[in-house]
Amino acid sequence: MASSRLTPQHWDDLPFGEVLQAEIETTLAPWWPRIFGYHLLKVGSLSSQINSLQCNINRHFSLFDGEGGNIQADPHYLPLQQNSIDAVVSCFLLDFEQDPYQILREFDRVLINSGYVFIVGFNPVSPAFVGKILPKYQDKLPWSGQFFMPSRVKDWLGLLGYQVLADERLMHHSLLGPVGSNNQTPWWQKTLANWLPSTGSVYVIVARKMTVPLTPIKDKAKVSAPNWSTAPSAGRTGLSKTQ
User: Fold this and answer.
1) Short-list 22, 46, 17, 47, CA closest to 175
2) Which residues of 146-166 are buried (b: 16+ CB within 10 A; e: fewer)?
3) CA 116 to CA 75: how far, in whole Å?
4) Angle at which helices 100-110 and 150-159 cross, to 10°
5) Across the chain, what does the average pLDDT equal?
6) Is 181 a residue whose pLDDT tops 60?
7) Which residue, 16, 149, 198, 211, is the most exposed by fewest CB within 10 angstroms?
8) In angstroms, rounded to a whole number, what is the distance separating the alpha carbons of residues 16 and 199?
9) Which GO biological process annotations does it have (predicted)?
């Protein structure tokens, strides 16, 4: 299921691409020493360019439908075995694909129990949404993509049985004009970040796959309750029911 949307292949395809990449890498850096395993999967071209050298996982490889990936495949159908990946990184992938929930289901299929998923996307409740309203930008990156609410992404993860460990916002900027312009100064961005931190134009969600215990728990009330259908009648025996 190839995407028909204009899709960024390099960070330079996005406005402030280098700044976005640097901020995302800074946000992810504290997580790398905390995860362990054998395989880290970076899904999407932008994800493949994220620096993860400090990660404790031994093998890092990329997957996307195009040249340059270690594996060339449709992210809707990962050609990987079930429960074979320790962590997945997805940068601005869901925003430009036709069926983002199917992609999350594939992440869940290939992740081991207690595996991690790192999801980066554009936040519609942010200054960046201005470009979705202005016709001249609607066919340009990143506004040609879908901006999913972070709460919606977390709901999808909840349905799949994930615990959200972090939900951060970056880049309190519209991505339309240069940083430090007359109508968008660094002071304005800093004020927005301080007073409305949830309005960052980029969200970073970290979640962990949780396992549900399958051992049945006995209902003590049912175990201790007497079976009155087989017990002799209290009226005939002269006994009363014990409490």
Assistant:
1) 17
2) bbbebeebbebbeebebebee
3) 17
4) 40
5) 85
6) no
7) 211
8) 17
9) methylation
Rounded Cα distance, 113 and 5, in Å:
33
CA angle, 197 then 199 then 205, to 5°: 80
Residue 229 DSSP label: T
> Global pTM?
0.82
Please count the other Cβ atoms lying within 10 Å of the Cβ belonging to residue 116.
Answer: 23
Per-residue pLDDT of 25-41, as tens digits, reads 999 999 999 999 999 99
**Dihedral sign for Cα atoms in the order 45, 24, 203, 61:** positive
pLDDT digits (tens, 9 = 90+) for 129-176: 999 999 999 999 999 999 999 999 999 999 999 999 999 999 989 998
SS3 25: helix
| Interior angle at CA 177, CA 174 and CA 182, nearest 5 | 105
DSSP character for 233?
P
C-alpha 123/C-alpha 127 separation (Å) is 9
Is the CB of residue 5 less than 8 Å from the CB of residue 144? yes
Residue 233: how many CB atoms within 10 A of its CB? Answer: 8
| Tokens encoding 133 | 């309203």
- Burial group, residue 199, by CB count within 10 angstroms (0-12, 13-18, 19+): middle
Phi, psi (5° rounding) for residue 118?
-115, 115
Whether residue 243 has pLDDT greater than 80: no
Q: How far is the CA of 193 from the CAs of 22, 48, 163, 184, in angstroms?
A: 18, 28, 26, 13
Helix (H, G, I), strand (E, B) or coil at 149: coil
